[in-house]
Write a structure and sequence with these properties.
about 120 residues, mainly beta, 11 strands, globular
Amino acid sequence: QAQLVESGGGLVQAGGSLRLSCAASGLTFSSYGMGWFRQAPGKEREFVSAISWTGTSKYYGNSVKGRFTTSRDNSKNTVYLQMNSLKPEDTAVYYCAAPVNGPPGLDTNPPNYWGRGTQVTVSS
């Protein structure tokens, strides 16, 4: 059974950085596009990023473009989200998901697998 486990969340001051990791098991990781989503209290889930199975294609939500970078290491079955210049509005639970082949407007199929999420809190 596929399992996605996020780590790396925490409390950081505005302007700081965090690196999230998502370790996958039970699926052929190198064949899956991977994605990150986030959900803040009282808000809908929001697309953050997606990376193709080769790592050559990457997509970002408008609110994180230029600040967040996604990458993957297929030898470690892990996808990453480097978050820089964090803002209080980035505070949310961040979820890893698969398969994700692009932003919702491009990829109309919902992910089959979700992690349990990791909390990111950015203080002002």
